[in-house]
């Protein structure tokens, strides 16, 4: 900005030198260059105040502008060649206007790049007033030339004169929108002065002149020059005031920026100083987080293990589907199953055993029996409901319905259990006592639900449960006792050997027709290579084994001489033999 103000002063002096040179070669001149020396000195002094030449000029294509000394030499060469006989007003205007417009273009460009904050408004005014100073100087030269020579040499200079006045008026009026220093009524105040009121008349005379007339008047030429100079002095004063205002505003803004930079620097120093502390605490925090993560992971794994143990225990108390539903909801609605099969078993003469055996031996005996029976459950689609004393209760078709397969599932399980009991194939470690079981099951509708809030149990209710219990209590040792509805369902499969027992009196039921489940049907004859039978939802085939009760095989797959096959609908193992 300081460079722009210095160049503004240089422009002012160059324009003054230009106008005095034009007067010298016109009829207003005194015929000697002596009166120009003072203007030359003012211009040289303005160059001297340019302590630093703009760096942008050092690579300019026109060599006379690359540094201050080159431009001064360029102007001094022109001063020397100035001659009242050979020089023309047009050549003087072109020479000085070229320098003025070059410097003015750079100054305007430089001003546009330095504005920030509220300073840009004052810079806009400074730019417009600088243009006004340039146009007022050109008008002074053209007006004095007109009256000195009697007319303009050509129409182009006349148009240039009018354009300069028009641009001056526009820039001066619009500059008032951006700064209070510019008074739009200044022209009227200046024109009221006796030295400046005449310029309006002189402008009018030039505006309405024609190119063929002679308006030569040294008095008017001098008056035009003096009045225009008065205006230029006012504009130059205004320009300097605006420049000082810009410098003041920029200094204030720079002070604010310095304070901000200082504050930022202090904050940066504090942050840098705090970095080691922050890094230490960050590292400590990271270490604690890693330790906590390891502890959390270990605790999470332990929690998962405990959760797994809890689920295992819960699944032993309740069916898995029921337990899963209870974990999701605190309540479990009771269910009704239209068709299911319930089986009971009990030890024959159990009360006598309780009096003969020590408690530990009795518990060991029951544990060995029930553990062996529990292992059999894995082979079938059944669910162990509960054990009470010597009573062992199993169901099929609940809590997950399995269509019509539940009678066959329970029938096969009962055959497995009776076979095991007859061979005494269960592991009691403390005492070996031969046991016999009563087995009975029944098929029908049941209701199911979770009972209690402590030691939850999945309980079954209904006449089917009572009937199954009566079938067991009215049965015979190592025999499988069933009622008539169960008999009909097993008979439909064509896969089991059933024997009528006849009508018996059942407590709470009266006369009932009951049956014995003797075993599975015989294997096919030797003439039949294979013969496929299908129970509900299962596929099976016969083997060529002729042995009964698995005397040589291991596992249930050939226990009754029937090989096990698995279908997509379940895991029921089927057998084909005669249960004797």
Automatic annotation (TrEMBL):
<protein>
    <recommendedName>
        <fullName>guanylate cyclase</fullName>
        <ecNumber>4.6.1.2</ecNumber>
    </recommendedName>
</protein>
<keyword id="KW-1133">Transmembrane helix</keyword>
<keyword id="KW-0456">Lyase</keyword>
<dbReference type="GO" id="GO:0001653">
    <property type="term" value="F:peptide receptor activity"/>
</dbReference>
<dbReference type="InterPro" id="IPR050401">
    <property type="entry name" value="Cyclic_nucleotide_synthase"/>
</dbReference>
<dbReference type="Pfam" id="PF07701">
    <property type="entry name" value="HNOBA"/>
</dbReference>
<keyword id="KW-0472">Membrane</keyword>
<dbReference type="Pfam" id="PF00211">
    <property type="entry name" value="Guanylate_cyc"/>
</dbReference>
<feature type="transmembrane region" description="Helical">
    <location>
        <begin position="261"/>
        <end position="281"/>
    </location>
</feature>
<keyword id="KW-0732">Signal</keyword>
<dbReference type="InterPro" id="IPR011645">
    <property type="entry name" value="HNOB_dom_associated"/>
</dbReference>
<dbReference type="GO" id="GO:0000166">
    <property type="term" value="F:nucleotide binding"/>
</dbReference>
<dbReference type="GO" id="GO:0004016">
    <property type="term" value="F:adenylate cyclase activity"/>
</dbReference>
<dbReference type="InterPro" id="IPR013587">
    <property type="entry name" value="Nitrate/nitrite_sensing"/>
</dbReference>
<dbReference type="GO" id="GO:0005886">
    <property type="term" value="C:plasma membrane"/>
</dbReference>
<feature type="domain" description="Guanylate cyclase">
    <location>
        <begin position="341"/>
        <end position="472"/>
    </location>
</feature>
<dbReference type="GO" id="GO:0004383">
    <property type="term" value="F:guanylate cyclase activity"/>
</dbReference>
<keyword id="KW-0547">Nucleotide-binding</keyword>
<dbReference type="GO" id="GO:0007168">
    <property type="term" value="P:receptor guanylyl cyclase signaling pathway"/>
</dbReference>
<dbReference type="InterPro" id="IPR001054">
    <property type="entry name" value="A/G_cyclase"/>
</dbReference>
<dbReference type="InterPro" id="IPR029787">
    <property type="entry name" value="Nucleotide_cyclase"/>
</dbReference>
<keyword id="KW-0141">cGMP biosynthesis</keyword>
<dbReference type="Pfam" id="PF08376">
    <property type="entry name" value="NIT"/>
</dbReference>
<dbReference type="GO" id="GO:0035556">
    <property type="term" value="P:intracellular signal transduction"/>
</dbReference>
<keyword id="KW-0812">Transmembrane</keyword>
């Amino acid at each position: 900005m300081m460079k722009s103000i210095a160049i503004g002063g240089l422009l002012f002096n160059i324009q003054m030198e230009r106008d005095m040179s034009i007067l010298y070669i016109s009829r207003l001149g005194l015929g000697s260059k002596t009166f120009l020396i003072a203007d030359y000195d003012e211009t040289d002094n303005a160059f001297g105040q340019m302590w630093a030449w703009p760096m942008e000029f050092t690579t300019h294509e026109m060599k006379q502008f690359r540094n201050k000394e080159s431009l001064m030499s360029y102007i001094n060469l022109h001063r020397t060649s100035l001659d009242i006989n050979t020089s023309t007003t047009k050549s003087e205007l072109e020479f000085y206007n070229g320098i003025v417009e070059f410097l003015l273009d750079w100054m305007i460009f430089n001003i546009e790049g330095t504005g920030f904050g509220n300073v840009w408004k004052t810079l806009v005014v400074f730019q417009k007033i600088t243009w006004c100073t340039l146009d007022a100087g050109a008008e002074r030269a053209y007006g004095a030339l007109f009256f000195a020579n009697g007319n303009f040499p050509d129409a182009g200079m006349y148009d240039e004169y009018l354009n300069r006045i028009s641009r001056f008026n526009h820039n001066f009026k619009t500059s008032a929108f951006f700064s209070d220093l510019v008074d739009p009524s200044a022209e009227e105040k200046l024109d009221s002065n006796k030295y400046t009121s005449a310029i309006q008349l002189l402008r009018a005379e030039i505006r309405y002149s024609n190119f063929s007339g002679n308006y030569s008047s040294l008095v008017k030429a001098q008056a035009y020059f003096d009045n225009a100079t008065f205006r230029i002095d006012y504009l130059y004063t205004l320009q300097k005031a605006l420049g000082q205002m810009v410098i003041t505003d920029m200094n204030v803004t720079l002070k604010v920026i310095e304070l901000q930079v200082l504050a930022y620097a202090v904050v940066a120093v504090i942050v840098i100083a705090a970095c080691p502390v922050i890094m230490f605490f960050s590292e400590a925090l990271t270490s604690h987080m890693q330790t906590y993560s390891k502890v959390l992971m270990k605790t999470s794994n332990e929690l998962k293990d405990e959760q797994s143990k809890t689920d295992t225990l819960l699944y032993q108390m309740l069916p898995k589907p029921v337990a899963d539903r209870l974990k999701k909801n605190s309540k479990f609605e009771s269910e009704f199953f239209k068709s299911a099969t319930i089986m009971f078993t009990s030890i024959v003469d159990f009360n006598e055993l309780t009096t003969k055996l020590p408690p530990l031996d009795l518990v060991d005996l029951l544990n060995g029996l029930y553990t062996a029976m529990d292992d059999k459950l894995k082979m079938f689609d059944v669910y162990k409901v509960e054990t009470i004393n010597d009573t062992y209760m199993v169901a099929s078709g609940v809590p997950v319905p399995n269509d019509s397969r539940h009678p066959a599932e329970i029938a096969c399980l009962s055959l497995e259990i009776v076979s095991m009991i007859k061979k005494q194939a269960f592991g009691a470690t403390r005492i070996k006592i031969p046991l016999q079981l009563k087995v009975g099951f029944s098929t029908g509708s049941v209701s199911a639900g979770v009972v209690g809030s402590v030691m939850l149990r999945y309980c079954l209710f209904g006449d089917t449960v009572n009937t199954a219990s009566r079938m067991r209590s009215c049965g015979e040792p190592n025999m499988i006792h069933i009622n008539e509805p169960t008999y009909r369902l097993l008979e439909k499969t064509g896969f089991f050997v059933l024997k009528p027992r006849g009508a018996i009196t059942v407590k709470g039921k009266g006369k009932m027709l009951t049956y014995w489940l003797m075993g599975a049907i015989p294997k096919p004859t030797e003439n039949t290579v294979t013969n496929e039978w299908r129970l509900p939802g299962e596929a099976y085939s016969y083997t060529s084994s002729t042995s009964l009760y698995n005397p040589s095989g291991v596992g249930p797959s050939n226990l009754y001489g029937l090989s096990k096959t698995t279908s997509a609908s379940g895991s029921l193992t089927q057998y084909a033999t005669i249960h004797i």
